[in-house]
């Protein structure tokens, strides 16, 4: 398959390296315009701590116009700009896959004729130095169509699922990815702002001192989700959130990492997305509002 990866972050390089291993794939990387120095190859350290190199092939207009798949591995607040910058070069049949935290980032989704998918990953990856990524945790991928007006092309979809699943197992094709997105959103609404505000590892959320705040945030998320026809059971959801905190106990959440490096955060697409929906449904979500205010204050 002809594949373009957008973004040279930890997840972008993880996919770039894994997909390039298969000689049936022609993979190229579209890097941010602000990158001035490009190495001839990328470095990748695998789960067994072995470091390998992969030649760096940059995506040009030909790669974009002939791509079967374009995989966006950029932050939620970068999606719109990334999409706008290439939309005139891409084919109406190219499949677009979005891999990011949060929701509401693909804002002109309804106007797109290309099949669009969300890819939710729990694989851990981090950047060691620019263009050197390390796979830090084996995870799982969920993929699902997000433009509801289109029907998936079964054969093409199967090919994409196989290609991605061989590159980075395991992968499930979901016919209700919205439910998976909301579960991930609920997890992120709790773990990301609290760890960023208190500057703690994810595992600290298991401490009793966070129980009330976690419960209040989840109750608000559940009320808003119901307006979108997503039903959560409070106890089940709380158990799932705490399980992620336990499984990633030693991890620094992406939002905490963004705050520590004084980068923009994805707060507007996580708790901010809850606030936006709450407003349109006239629901009060004071705890989520507080998270947004506190995180914004830390990065302004
Ligand atoms: O954004 C993150 O850091 C991750 O989605 C998660 C699950 C909170 C683990 O750190």
Helix/strand layout:
Blueprint (H helix, E strand, L loop, with lengths): L1 E5 L3 H11 L5 E5 L10 E5 L5 E5 L5 H5 L3 E4 L6 H8 L8 E4 L17 E6 L2 E6 L2 E6 L3 E5 L8 H14 L3 E3 L3 H22 L12 H17 L6 H14 L6 H7 L10 H10 L5 H14 L1
Parallel strand pairs: 1-2, 1-5, 3-9, 5-6, 6-7, 10-11
Antiparallel strand pairs: 3-4, 7-10, 8-9
The protein binds pantoate.
Pantoate binds next to helix 5.
In short:
This protein has 300 residues and is an alpha/beta fold.
Task: Report what the structure shows.
The protein is of the alpha/beta class and 300 residues long. It has ten helices and eleven strands. The strands form two sheets. Strands 2-1-5-6-7-10-11 form a seven-stranded mixed β-sheet. A four-stranded mixed β-sheet has the order 4-3-9-8, with helices on one face. Helix 9 (271-280) crosses helix 10. The radius of gyration is 19 Å and the shape is globular. It binds pantoate (PAF). Pantoate is lined by residues 101, 187-188, 191-192, 202, 244, 248, 251, 253-254.
């Amino acid at each position: 398959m002809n594949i373009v990866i957008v973004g040279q972050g930890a997840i972008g390089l993880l996919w770039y390296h894994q997909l390039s291993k298969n000689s049936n794939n022609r993979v190229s990387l579209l890097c941010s315009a602000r990158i001035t120095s490009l190495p001839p190859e990328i470095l990748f350290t695998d789960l067994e701590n072995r470091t390998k190199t992969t030649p760096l092939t940059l995506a040009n207009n030909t790669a974009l116009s002939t791509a079967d798949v374009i995989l966006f591995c950029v932050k939620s607040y970068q999606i719109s700009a990334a999409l706008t910058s290439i939309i005139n070069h891409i084919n109406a049949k190219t499949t677009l896959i979005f891999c990011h935290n949060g929701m509401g980032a693909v804002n002109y989704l309804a106007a797109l004729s290309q099949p669009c998918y969300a890819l939710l990953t729990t694989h851990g990856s981090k950047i060691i130095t620019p263009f050197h990524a390390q796979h830090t945790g084996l995870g799982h991928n969920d993929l699902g169509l997000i433009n509801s007006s289109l029907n998936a092309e079964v054969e093409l979809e199967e090919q994409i699922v196989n290609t991605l699943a061989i590159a980075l197992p395991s992968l499930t094709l979901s016919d209700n990815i919205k439910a998976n997105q909301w579960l991930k959103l609920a997890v992120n609404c709790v773990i990301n702002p609290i760890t960023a505000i208190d500057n703690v590892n994810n595992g600290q959320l298991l401490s009793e001192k966070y129980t009330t705040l976690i419960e209040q945030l989840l109750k608000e998320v559940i009320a808003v989700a119901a307006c979108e026809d997503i039903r959560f059971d409070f106890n089940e959801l709380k158990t799932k959130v705490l399980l992620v905190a336990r499984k990633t106990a030693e991890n620094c959440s992406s939002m905490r990492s963004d705050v520590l490096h004084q980068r923009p955060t994805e707060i507007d697409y996580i708790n901010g997305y809850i606030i936006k929906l709450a407003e349109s449904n006239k629901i009060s979500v004071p705890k989520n509002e507080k998270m947004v205010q506190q995180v914004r204050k830390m990065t302004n």
